[in-house]
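Figure 3 (text version): C-alpha cells given as input.
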C-alpha cells in the first residue's frame, strides 16, 4: 500500500511541491577548477576514512570520482545501535531515490550518508529501545557537550549488552544482526577508536554492499575547504539576515519556521573541549565560552583558514557546508528538517549557491501478525490516524458489548421522542419534564453500559494486554512506530536487517514521481 506521506504533516505537502517545481533540472557538475579541487579532496578524505579502519571502499566512491556525477544525501545523528528506525528509513530513501533518478535520467547518482558527528547533544544519541526497556549509553563524558563523534567508547559495550539481553526473545535473525553490531564494537574498543569510527563500522555492516558512501565532515581537510564560508559568518556576508527574511515570509504564509537563527551560525570546538556557540560581544568582538576569538586581529578569512578544524557549522549553516562539498541533486529529509531547509531559500540565493531538491523521507509501518489481527478486531487502519492504546482497547471493548445494546440505544431514542410528542400534545408545558425523564432513563442505561465495559475489561486481562501491546508498537505517546522502535527489532520478524532493508529498497514505486515520498506498509505473512 502506497500513500503520500506528507499528508501526516499539514502544510508540508505544499512546501515540498512549491520547492520542487522550482528545482533545476540541470544535472551537470559545476565546471570551475575550484569545484574539481573540492571533489578530489572529498574523495581523498573519504578513501582515508575507510582505509584508516581497514574497511573495503564503498562501491559508490569510484562512481563519485566520475565526471558529471550527482549525489542524493541524507544525514542523521549517530544514534546508538541505529536508535529509532527512521534513521534507516532516511538512508533507504536516499538509496532508492538515487537509483530511481539514475534510471530515469541516465546520469550517475551516488547516495551519501552525512554523519552528524559534530552534534554535541549526547542525550539525543545515547539511547535505544528494546523489547521491554530503554537502554542508555552511560558515558563519563556525557555532560561535556563534546562532539559526539569524538567521544571515547567507554560504556558502549554495557549499553549494547543490556539491549541484546532485552531482545533475547527476538529469534536467530536478530541474534545474527546483534553479533555483527557487537563485533564492530569489540574491534573499535581494541583499536581505541572514537564513536564516529564505530558508527562508520555499523553503517558499513548495514549498507556496505550498496553504493552508499558515508562521510564524516569533521575533517581538517574538509573544514579547510569551508574557511571562506565560515569567515562570512563574522561579517555581513553571513546567512543570518537572509534566513530571518525568509523565515518572516514563511511565517506570514502560515508555515512555521522553527529553527533558531544565530547571529553567528558557528560553534567553536578546540580539540578535547566542548562545542560552544560563537557570539558577538558588546565591544564587537567574538567569543565562545571562555575563549576570545582572533585576538591577533587577523582578517576573518585568515583566522578561519588557520582555525577551520576548530569551527563547526550550526544547524542552519551545515546545509551550505554540505552543498559546498557534495554535488547534490536532492537531499532526503525528515519533516522537521524540511521545515528548516525551507528557511534557507533566501540564503542560498544570497550566497549564489544552487539549492538541491528537498525530498521528504519515506515512512514505513511494520505490522506483525498479532498487530494485524488486533487492528482488524478494533477496526483500525492507517487512514484513521494514530490511535493511542486507550483508543484501541476502548474500541475492542465496545465491540464485545451484546448486539442488543445497540437496540437499546435505538429504543431509548425512539422512546424519548414518543414521550416528548405525547406529553406536548396534551400540554406544551409538559415537554421539558418529559425530556428530563427520558434523559434520566438514558443516564441509567449509560451507567449500566459503563458497568458492562468494566466487566468485559475485568474478564479479559490477557486480551486487553495483547491489544495494548500491539497498539504500543504502532503508536506510543502520539509518536509513530518509526520514532521509537529500532529497525533490528522490527526486522526480526522478516528475516533480519538486510531482508527488511532490501524489501524497502526494492519496493515498487514505479507509479510514484521522483518528487514524491511514500508510506510503505510491511505485513508479516
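Below: residues designed for each position.
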Amino acid at each position: 500500500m502506497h500513500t503520500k506521506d506528507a499528508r501526516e504533516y499539514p502544510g508540508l505537502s505544499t512546501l515540498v511541491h512549491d520547492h520542487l517545481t522550482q528545482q533545476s533540472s540541470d544535472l551537470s557538475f559545476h565546471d570551475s577548477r575550484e569545484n574539481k579541487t573540492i571533489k578530489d579532496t572529498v574523495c581523498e578524505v573519504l578513501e582515508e576514512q575507510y582505509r584508516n579502519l581497514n574497511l573495503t571502499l564503498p562501491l559508490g566512491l569510484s562512481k563519485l570520482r566520475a565526471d558529471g556525477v550527482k549525489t542524493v544525501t541524507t544525514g542523521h545523528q549517530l544514534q546508538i545501535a541505529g536508535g529509532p528506525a527512521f534513521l534507516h528509513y532516511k538512508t533507504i530513501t536516499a538509496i532508492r531515490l538515487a537509483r530511481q533518478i539514475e534510471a530515469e535520467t541516465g546520469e550517475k547518482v551516488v547516495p551519501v550518508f552525512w554523519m552528524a558527528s559534530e552534534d554535541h547533544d549526547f542525550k539525543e544519541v545515547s539511547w535505544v529501545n528494546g523489547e521491554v526497556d530503554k537502554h542508555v549509553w552511560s558515558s563519563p563524558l556525557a555532560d561535556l557537550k563534546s562532539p559526539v563523534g569524538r567521544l571515547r567508547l567507554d560504556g558502549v559495550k554495557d549499553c549494547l549488552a543490556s539491549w541484546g539481553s532485552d531482545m533475547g526473545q527476538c529469534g536467530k535473525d536478530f541474534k545474527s544482526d546483534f553479533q555483527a553490531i557487537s563485533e564492530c564494537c569489540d574491534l573499535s574498543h581494541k583499536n581505541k577508536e572514537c564513536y564516529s569510527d564505530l558508527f562508520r563500522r555499523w553503517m558499513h555492516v548495514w549498507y556496505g554492499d550498496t553504493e552508499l558512501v558515508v562521510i564524516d565532515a569533521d575533517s581538517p581537510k574538509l573544514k579547510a575547504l569551508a574557511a571562506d564560508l565560515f569567515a562570512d559568518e563574522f561579517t555581513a556576508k553571513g546567512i543570518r539576515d537572509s534566513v530571518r527574511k525568509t523565515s518572516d515570509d514563511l511565517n506570514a504564509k502560515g508555515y512555521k519556521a522553527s529553527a533558531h537563527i544565530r547571529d553567528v551560525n558557528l560553534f567553536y570546538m578546540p580539540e578535547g573541549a566542548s562545542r560552544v556557540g560563537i557570539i558577538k560581544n558588546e565591544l564587537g568582538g567574538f567569543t565562545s565560552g571562555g575563549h576570545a576569538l582572533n585576538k591577533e586581529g587577523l582578517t576573518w578569512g585568515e583566522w578561519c583558514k588557520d582555525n577551520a578544524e576548530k569551527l563547526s557549522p550550526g544547524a542552519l549553516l551545515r546545509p551550505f557546508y554540505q552543498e559546498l562539498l557534495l554535488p547534490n541533486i536532492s537531499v532526503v529529509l525528515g519533516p522537521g528538517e524540511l521545515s528548516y531547509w525551507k528557511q534557507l531559500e533566501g540564503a542560498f540565493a544570497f550566497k549564489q549557491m544552487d539549492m538541491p531538491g528537498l525530498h521528504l523521507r519515506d515512512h514505513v509501518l511494520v505490522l506483525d501478525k498479532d498487530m494485524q489481527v488486533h487492528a482488524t478486531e478494533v477496526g483500525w487502519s492507517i487512514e484513521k490516524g494514530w490511535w493511542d492504546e486507550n483508543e484501541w482497547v476502548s474500541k475492542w471493548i465496545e465491540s464485545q458489548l451484546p448486539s442488543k445494546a445497540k437496540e437499546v440505544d435505538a429504543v431509548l431514542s425512539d422512546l424519548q421522542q414518543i414521550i416528548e410528542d405525547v406529553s406536548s400534545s396534551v400540554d406544551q408545558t409538559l415537554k421539558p419534564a418529559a425530556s428530563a425523564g427520558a434523559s434520566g432513563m438514558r443516564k441509567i442505561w449509560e451507567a449500566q453500559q459503563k458497568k458492562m465495559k468494566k466487566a468485559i475489561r475485568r474478564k479479559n486481562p490477557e486480551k486487553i494486554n495483547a491489544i495494548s501491546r500491539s497498539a504500543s508498537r504502532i503508536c506510543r505517546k502520539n509518536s509513530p512506530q518509526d520514532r521509537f522502535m529500532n529497525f533490528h527489532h522490527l526486522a526480526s520478524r522478516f528475516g533480519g536487517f538486510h531482508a527488511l532493508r532490501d524489501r524497502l529498497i526494492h519496493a515498487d514505486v514505479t507509479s510514484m514521481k521522483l518528487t514524491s515520498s511514500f508510506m510503505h506498509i510491511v505485513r508479516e505473512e
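The longest helix spans residues 431-459.
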